[in-house]
Amino acid sequence: MRRVRAAITLPRVILGAIVVGASLLSLYWAFLVPIFQAPDEPSHLDYALSIYDTHGLLNLRDRPTEPTYFAFAHPTTNYLVRKTGFLDVLFESSVGMSRDYGTRAYYADLDRNAPPTGSAPTKNPFIVSLYPFGYYALVAIWLAALSPLHLSLVGMFFAARILSVVLLAMTLFLTYAVARELKLKPALALTLTAVIGSLPLTSFVSSYIQPDNLGFTLVTLSIYLSLRARRAMFAGWWVGGLGLALGTLLVTKYQFYICILIPILAMLVSERLFAPKRWGGQVLMPAALVALIAPSIVFGAIQAWVLASDRPAVGAVSTNGTQFTISSAAFFQNLHGGPVPFFWYLVADLREAFYYFYIGPSAHSFWGVFGWLDAPISIHSPQVSDLVQAVEVALTILILVLMLVRMENVVGRLIALARRGRRRWALRIAFGNPFLNSYLLFSVFMFGLWVLTNATFGPQGRNWLPYLLPAFSVGVIYAPKVLTHKRSRAAFSGAIVAALVAYCLVGGYYAIKTIKQRYYTQALAVTSVNLAGQQRLTSGSAVGIDKIDGVGWPDVGQGTTVTIAGWAIDAAHQSLGTAVVVVVDGNLDFPGVYGFARQDVVDKYHVEAYRNSGFSVTFSTSGLADGPHKASVELVSSAGGGYYELLPVDFTVSG
Hints:
Layout: H1 2-32, H2 41-54, H3 75-83, H4 86-89, E1 95-96, H5 104-112, H6 134-145, H7 153-181, H8 186-198, H9 200-205, H10 212-231, H11 236-250, H12 254-274, H13 286-307, E2 317-319, E3 322-324, H14 329-335, H15 339-358, H16 361-368, E4 369-370, E5 375-376, H17 382-419, H18 423-430, H19 434-452, H20 468-478, H21 486-520, E6 524-525, E7 535-537, E8 542-549, E9 555-557, E10 561-569, E11 579-584, E12 588-591, E13 593-596, H22 599-605, E14 614-620, E15 627-636, E16 642-654
Parallel strand pairs: 1-6, 7-16, 9-16
Antiparallel strand pairs: 2-3, 4-5, 8-10, 10-14, 11-12, 11-15, 13-14, 15-16
Helix pairs in contact: 1-7, 1-8, 2-6, 7-8, 7-10, 8-21, 10-11, 10-12, 11-12, 11-13, 12-18, 12-19, 17-18
């Protein structure tokens, strides 16, 4: 009896250790990755804070919407973008964070100068019309629940990140439960759960403010509830819980909802057709249908209420002044051009999609590209990194080929089974694993979206986060079944498992090193300076401006990013200054990057000390009122305590 209890308890203990370890790793990442240096995080926080301070859901009718992706509605978002030097570091792989980033003094300074909280935004965040409200409402509820702690701005930001860690812990418990429902042995289920929890992709995504985390949890929860409902002969409360999970998923990620709903409904229908009497007539009965569909109808109606508006559509996604518009114009143009041109259009786009997803950027970001896709993982050396990447691609393609062969075999057998009069059995087998079917459907969806938009959207590896379990199961369980010898199958599966475990260990170590190298050890870094109390110096400096870049400058729109680059010296002391800052309207300071090599300045003044006098400062017009404004480049003197106003320029903002 004791041995039986020990056998039951041991997997639970190991599972608990896996979840705690993965959560602690993710928590470490939450503080390691700098504020906003993760894809789309400013926009996600902007939406969540806007709901939090509005004390309710936003809609597109009550207020205008920010026109571009980098125009933020909430003052806190604009403040953090400005003070952290976000725009100076973004996509600049040679520029790191401020030297004192992460210290107690740095965070205290952020809190001390933070804008007052509690005021409802006057505009909607840009992404209100692009993303459903579910995740952002959850973050707002989470922050409201923590309000008795009287968190500071920094505390609220990291609390929002910690919610992602909590969601990861829940997801990992569910992942193991799903694996066991799919009849995986405990050892393999635990191993795959550990791999998923410690994968660098998981650690990165689960450490920042991102709705994919809630999508990950809800997809796994929906699959678990559907499998438990099937095992419990579709008892009402299991179906009701499944319906609630699906409804919440609908207002979290549309694409995941569709790709989960269809396989689950297919499973329910096949079970009903297979043995209606066995299930007591429960499957697809009116009460079960209401419990399953009603939450989706209710949540979908709320999302429709959010989106209903007669206001004009928002503008294109903008990144550092570059506009990105997802368009299907090329697809329909080729469609109307006749069957032959359309066929070759499809062939070309599918070939590009295959490269992108399995060899190119999407595959790379799945295995480890961090930051705003500007920090690829570096394992030991460029040569070793290239070798690891080549092995990843080779194994991925090999598994894909084996899986396609396996699918052809299975489909052939199911057709043969149906021809022998056992159609219900064939349907039940075909739709018996909704997680695998959902993964395959999602992959088809992503290829189809690529073709439809002619590659004008940028899928990333994190898009497959909710499907890590079926994706890895393909390589470990399903694809090896093509091999005819039992030992060959076991050896292949074991090799894939070993490779995944090894990558989590080695890749996890080097992923952290990559983040540290990218943001904390660069020769160039954002300058951190407070001009308050410093004396304004009227002479003794020199400056040269190479460019002022900004769409439409000096007449710019809301959310436009403007870069001023050039050189500056403290001529009075024949030295460099200590920092360069752009000040807008005399009170908004945007830190810059100072220290770029400038041989031309050395040649001009014949002073070697001026070599690293180049600077670049990027600031945003987000949050500025419509009308005229003034920006000035200011150089802090070499001795500190004073600054030179180098270049006052006028510009105009229009919303």
